[in-house]
Amino acid sequence: MSVTRSILSHMNIVLEDGSTADSTKASGKPAKLNIGDQTLSPAFEAEIVNLNEGDKHSFTLAPADAFGESNPDAIHYLDRSKFPADMELQAGVIVSFAGPGGSEIPGIVREVAGDSVTVDLNHPLAGHSVTFELEVVQVL
């Protein structure tokens, strides 16, 4: 399916505990959301398909409809020698790996135990229900 329309929208992504995980207002750059190109989940598209300029809309999506479920296959146990010797590895540190075509794949260090480093390549919001707070700036 091709893009049927696009929406420029300021967006807050709010976690279950009420904290804001991300906000386009901080950067001053609204997000472009394409409806119909399959980059958004069907549940997300259903929430925004009828929005117009000036509309404000808030909705909560389950993990499967937002950033996906946490995939245990995306958690890797690597030897400390795979990282630069001067890299400080501790839980919460984001590390980058080379992906296909020169892309970068971010991973979060979950645990360091001796020479074993646990790295999670899931999206940081995978496995979480999230609330999207949208304010439509423009319909394209």
Topology readout:
Elements lengths: L4 E10 L5 E4 H4 L3 E5 L6 H7 L7 E6 L13 E5 L14 E5 L5 E10 L2 E5 L9 E10 L1
Antiparallel strand pairs: 1-2, 1-3, 1-9, 4-9, 5-8, 6-7, 7-8
Can you put this structure into words, describing what you see?
This protein is mainly beta. It has two domains: 5-68 and 125-139, Chitinase A, domain 3 (Roll), CATH 3.10.50.40; 72-120, Thrombin, subunit H (Beta Barrel). The protein is 8% helix and 43% strand. It contains two helices and nine strands. It has helices at 24-27, 42-48; strands at 5-14, 20-23, 31-35, 56-61, 75-79, 94-98, 104-113, 116-120, 130-139. The strands form two sheets. Strands 1, 2, 3, 4 and 9 form a five-stranded antiparallel beta sheet that branches. The chain has a four-stranded antiparallel beta sheet with strand order 5-8-7-6, with no helix packed on it. Strand 7 and strand 8 (116-120) form a beta hairpin. The longest helix has 7 residues, at 42-48.
Q: What radius of gyration results from the CA coordinates?
A: 18 Å
Could you say which structural class the secondary elements and strand pairing correspond to?
A: mainly beta
Helix and strand run: EEHEHEEEEEE
Oligomer: single chain
Shape: elongated
Q: In CATH terms, what is the fold-level topology of the largest domain?
A: Chitinase A, domain 3
Number of domains: 2
Any idea what the CATH architecture of the largest domain is? Roll
| Share of β-strand residues | 35-45%
Main sheet, how many strands, which sense, barrel? 5 strands, antiparallel
CATH class division of the largest domain: Alpha Beta
Tally of alpha and pi helices: 2
| Number of beta strands | 9
Rounded mean pLDDT is: 93
> Which ranges are low-confidence, i.e. pLDDT below 50, for 5 or more consecutive residues?
none
Helical content stands at: under 10%
